[in-house]
Write a structure and sequence with these properties.
By secondary structure, this protein is mostly helical. It is built from eleven helices and no strands. Helix 8 runs parallel beside helix 10. It is elongated, with a radius of gyration of 22 Å.
């Protein structure tokens, strides 16, 4: 039998760190679950903040400990799925814990592992990919189906649009929905507009350098 004294000091330090973050904020049995699940998650290269946040959130709402524990385990499973899906976009994504957390959020919001993998294959830089995953998850939460959410975010990423445009997508979809346009149709229309702009460039007067003044006529 392996005793606590036989565990590596680093592992004990990680467990203590998780326990300290939960102390006084969750019941002891929930803290024990998060320590166990979180330690195993760290060993697999996963982020633990989503697990801790889920435990604190559930406990603050008075949810029974067994349900909070089940939710924490579900988040860990989603992070595993996100990491595997991001791995299809390259090892750098697979090892970035912030990207994994963003992928986990997207899955929680309603996207599938395949959706996350498709986004990962867009070839966008990691910071843009992290924003894209969060935006895709937000779109899914608004009712946009996974295929349309991925198509819209992928088109925007591949067009090299700035983060501000990515972050504006949910608001633009909501604006169309406010006019009675279904979520899928709203996202698809915006995706076509982004793709068209990428092919033909911005409309006249947008994004074009100013024309230098003509030289004076002698």
């Amino acid at each position: 039998m392996i005793t606590a004294l036989a565990l590596p000091l680093a592992l004990l330090g990680l467990q203590q760190g998780i326990a300290e973050r939960l102390a006084g904020r969750v019941p002891p049995d929930v803290a024990g679950i998060v320590v166990d699940v979180g330690t195993a998650a760290l060993a697999r290269g996963l982020p633990i903040d989503p697990l801790i946040q889920k435990a604190i959130e559930g406990s603050a709402k008075g949810i029974p400990s067994d349900r909070v524990g089940a939710a924490v385990r579900l988040v860990a499973a989603q992070l595993d799925t996100a990491a595997a899906a991001l791995g299809e976009g390259g090892s750098a994504l697979r090892s970035d814990t912030v990207a994994i957390a963003a992928g986990g959020f997207a899955l929680t919001a309603g996207l599938s592992g395949r959706d996350v993998a498709l986004l990962a294959k867009s070839g966008a830089p990691i910071p843009a990919m992290i924003t894209g995953l969060r935006v895709a998850g937000t779109l899914a939460a608004l009712g946009v189906p996974g295929a349309e959410a991925v198509a819209l975010v992928s088109a925007t990423l591949q067009a090299g649009r700035p983060a501000s445009e990515l972050l504006a997508l949910p608001g633009r979809v909501q604006a169309e929905m406010g006019k009675g346009v279904p979520p899928a149709q709203a996202a698809a229309g915006l995706a076509r507009a982004v793709a068209a702009q990428a092919r033909h460039g911005p409309p006249p007067g947008r994004g074009q350098p100013a024309r230098p003044p003509a030289p004076p006529v002698p």
